[in-house]
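Q: Now give one record:
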Amino acid sequence: MLELKNVFSSDEARYNFILACIRVAAADDEICEEESEYLTYVAQEIGLGLDRVSDAFIAAKDGAEVVRFETRKESLTILKELISLCHIDGNYSASEKAEICKIASELNIEQASIDAIEDWVSEGTAWVENGKALVENLAGAL
């Protein structure tokens, strides 16, 4: 994972990133343990205090929209991380995809960019799983 604290230009951008993560994690009506661990890790990584994370949980529950970011790079980074978050539990659900599309729309990110990032994340996920299977197969061959 890239150093997220160096991507965002302001505290507001970091807050909005966590808000978007929470919205996606909760899109399927549950935040699994892996998603919770990811949210905790990311909040620490970007230097966002627990009080701001709590505020973001409340705002997400109330349906808050993600505020625009200063750069397209910030917006695309968020989208990449959100799609990666969706894959963390091995199930990119229809409700998560719908929330991704809603956030992308709020950020003025076009469908072609969403598709490209989804393809990249899917390829990366498959690559990791193939690596795990390779090690298991090699370990069992002895």
DSSP finds six helices and no strands in the chain.
